[in-house]
Amino acid sequence: MNDVTPTRIVGDLSHLPESAMGARNIVWWGNIGFMAIEGTAFLLAIGTYFYLMSQSPAWPPSGDRPPDLIWGIVFTAGLAFSMMPNIWVLRAARRKDAGAVRVGVLLMAIIGAALFVPRAFELAHLNVPWHQDAYGSVLWMLMVLHTSHIVTDWGDTCVQALWLYTHEIGDDQFADVEDNSNYWTFVVLTWIPIAAIVYLAPRLG
Asked: Which residues have C-beta within 8 Å of that of residue 198, sequence separation ≥ 6?
């Protein structure tokens, strides 16, 4: 009796996996696209800052003081520290470790909430109101723009943590955790040039 190899029907997708991680997942590409759009917004804000700086005879203008350094340093150190658990939960998601993912996402939600404290002190020590002049307006624009990304990612992380602790975790959820972790990395990396502009540019101009 001859062996007969079954013929796959053209257009049959039943052999494909139901979910995927990384670049094989359409949501991953959506996340990349969103970061590209938000990154463009940051670049436009940074460009606005330098344009206004180039048009001013003194930067900051006479009567304004640069932001206090201490809370910027504390916040930056906190962001840098957050990358350790963020990378850990990313790796846990990729190896599909449900227990570690639950703990890691909850830890990231707690860290995100804790970072609001130094950020609030940062905003209180910018030393210029947003409406005082162009310097104050663009400075606050940069800070609020970055803060809004922290708030939205923190909210997403909290919802994700609640879901993970109340439902069974499947492949789609591991992919969601990966995307959220990648976005937090984006939030951390975008802070590097913004911090340099907010805290160093007024002291060098």
From this structure: 67, 72, 139, 142, 143
